[in-house]
Design brief:
This protein is α/β, with parallel strands linked by helices. The protein has 2 domains: 4-199, 2-enoyl-CoA Hydratase, Chain A, domain 1, CATH 3.90.226.10; 204-249, Lyase 2-enoyl-coa Hydratase, Chain  A, domain 2. The chain is built from 10 helices and 11 strands. It has helices spanning 33-47, 77-94, 110-117, 144-152, 154-163, 169-174, 187-199, 204-215, 220-235, 238-249, and strands at 4-5, 9-14, 17-22, 54-59, 63-65, 99-103, 106-108, 120-124, 128-130, 166-168, 180-182. The strands form 2 sheets. Strands 1-2-3-4-6-8-11 form a 7-stranded mixed sheet, with helices on both faces. β2 and β3 (17-22) form a beta hairpin. α1 (33-47) runs parallel beside α2 and α4 (144-152) crosses α5. The chain starts with a strand and ends in a 9-residue tail after the last helix.
Length: 258
């Protein structure tokens, strides 16, 4: 995978992992419509690229992202959310490959919301998630009111939203909001190790995403039907054949994502 960069997004890839680095460090990687759209376009390209089997989203400098950028092109609230944030959230959720948020510093407001759309979240131990909407007289957006109650429960979600307080990494791990907190200088290595592990996994990882996405609103009967459909798809993959062969041969499977 090629390495490319522009003024606000760095795209790099290695060993099946595509890394998208928000690159506006002078503004703590604040989110502009252009940046959101560029991330979404890269994910859309990666969806059909067999060389990409896992995606990492992180930030340059000392912040993941401070949230919505102020100033710039004048758009209505509805336009910003419906045309830029919401399509990116949907793209991340429907992306049939694992997405990791590597939270290297503060993730505030809508940026915190975007991390919740990712499949896995790793934070540095000095990072914070801040659902600061009430501090500026706003309500949550970018999917936060859907994701957060499902991750931490309605009571904790209510507290975080209404108080708008900082959530340090250790507390975020304890409440199940993120999966791991690591020392700052270990974030890249830990994230790379996890991403490469996922990138070496079978195509069924993407099917798990479909199952979990459907389970959020399905009845048991409906979800059982989803499991039948996705298991049928899984058994038709080359990776399934390789997995069975490796099991019988008592060796490690060599999955290709097909």
């Amino acid at each position: 995978m090629a390495f490319t960069t522009d003024s606000h997004l760095v795209v790099s890839g290695s060993r099946g992992v595509l890394t998208l680095t928000l690159n506006r460090p002078d503004s703590l990687n604040s989110l502009t419509p252009e940046l959101l759209d560029d991330v979404r376009r890269q994910l859309a390209k990666a969806e059909n690229d067999p060389a990409v089997r896992c995606v990492v989203i992180t930030g340059a400098g000392r912040s993941f992202s401070s949230g919505q950028a102020l100033g710039g092109k004048k758009l209505s609230t509805r336009e910003v959310l419906e045309q830029h944030y919401n399509p990116l959230v949907t793209t991340i959720v429907e992306f049939d490959k694992p997405v990791i948020a590597a939270i290297n510093g503060v993730a505030a407001g809508a940026a915190a919301s975007l991390t919740l759309a990712c499949d896995l979240r790793i934070m540095t131990d000095d990072a914070r998630l801040i659902f600061l909407f009430t501090r500026v007289g706003l309500v949550a957006d970018a999917g936060a009111t859907w994701f957060l109650p499902r991750l931490v429960g309605p009571a904790t979600a209510t507290e975080l939203f209404m108080l708008g307080r900082d959530v340090p990494a250790t507390e975020a791990v304890d409440m199940g909001l993120v999966h791991r907190a690591v020392p700052h200088d270990e974030l890249d290595d830990v994230t790379t190790g996890l991403a490469e592990h996922l990138a070496s996994g079978p195509a069924s990882i993407g099917l798990f995403k479909r199952q979990l996405r459907a389970s959020a609103s399905n009845t048991l009967e409906q979800q059982l039907a989803v499991e039948v459909d996705t298991q049928e798809l899984a058994t038709s993959t080359e990776d399934y054949q390789e997995g069975v062969a490796a099991f019988l041969d008592k060796r490690t499977a060599r999955f290709t994502g097909r």
